[in-house]
Amino acid sequence: MTSSNFSTVPKGAQQQPTPFELKIDESKLQELQTLLRLSPVAKETYENLQDDGSHGRLGVSRKWVADTKKYWEQEYDWRKEEAHINSFLNFKTKITDDDGGVFDVHFVALFSSNPSAIPVAFFHGWPGSFLEFLPLMGILSKKYTPETLPYHIIVPSLPGFTLSSDPPLNRDWKVADTSRIMHKLLLSLGFGSTGYLVQGGDIGSLVSRVIAATYAECKGMHVNFMFIKDIATKSSPDDEISEAEKKGLDRLNQFMSVGHAYAQEHGTKPSTIGLVLASSPVAQLAWIGEKFLAWADPSTTPSLDTILSDITLYWLTGCYPTSIYTYREAKELLYVDKPIGYSYFPYELAPVPKAWAEKTGKMVFFKSHDKGGHFAALERPEQLWADFEEYVKAAWK
């Protein structure tokens, strides 16, 4: 492992996590190949021929799905991606919940040997995974040594996603439950005494906010997504809204009118959509691929291999049906009475203005960017990291 010298778990850890190496059985890969070969692509329709080169105004285009299916089947190399994942330090650890349930939690880490290192957890969203933060971790592992790294970097797989345990079958599961397990993970690594910071986008921003608002050990949060449902309580005629932010609000309104149907399906009929998308890799390709194409900045859209790696990991771990539980909750934002930071990317789904965002917590950092979208950690990892470091300077006392 190229990052093996960042492997020393802090001395205060309550339990030692187990090193983990991802190795998908060859039979599963062959099964995927067979399913791809046998899965049809829908016939041409007026709607699926509305193609601008990636995705159409009425949804992902037939051409993109057909071309990507062919590339996925004939050229994409999962073993190459698997080797890339294993070049980072992967761990699994057992986390016992308050009711005695035990979760097998996966995370990627860079541990520092600097006694003053600041613990930081980065939380992914949907339809993302821990893969979102590997570019950032690659940057850090090249820039620092274990002695000079100023942070402990922890990137978990959220419960229900890819390599971590699923939510229980006998009760509903909410963001607060996931947040509790993530908090317990950080305590198990010994960060209860020092405190820690959290960062996230999409669902990861919701997890970050709940943790920051709930647990004293969390000293603050930085987010690049801030979906404000109760806009009436966050906006006022006196708010200063820039021209760029006005364009962002147009994008938010467009998303709510023509891009939000998937979330309503996730939230109201999760059983149905879970069964549908678990039946075909091409179905997942269309459903998840559309999101990567439509939600990213066209100038910084992740590569086809990056998109396929995420979809392939979802398929091989069977996690899609267990990854959509958060959509059943009303996403009212808790106020965070701690230092918060907010990075604004113009192609975000919910690029809310600074004037609104700063009403959700004690904002100590804000920066607006002219490029980047929903998958900021993939699209602009250097800029996201630079923002986070600036936030830490203002937040960590």
From TrEMBL:
GO MF annotations in UniProt: epoxide hydrolase activity
Highest taxon of the lineage: Eukaryota
Stated family: Belongs to the peptidase S33 family.
SUPFAM superfamilies: alpha/beta-Hydrolases (SSF53474)
Active site: residue positions: D202, Y327, H374
One Pfam family hit: EHN
Gene3D superfamilies: alpha/beta hydrolase
GO annotation, biological process: epoxide metabolic process
Protein name, entry field: Epoxide hydrolase N-terminal domain-containing protein
InterPro entries according to UniProt: AB_hydrolase_fold, Epox_hydrolase-like, Epoxide_hydro_N, Epoxide_hydrolase
Segments forming domain Epoxide hydrolase N-terminal: 18-133
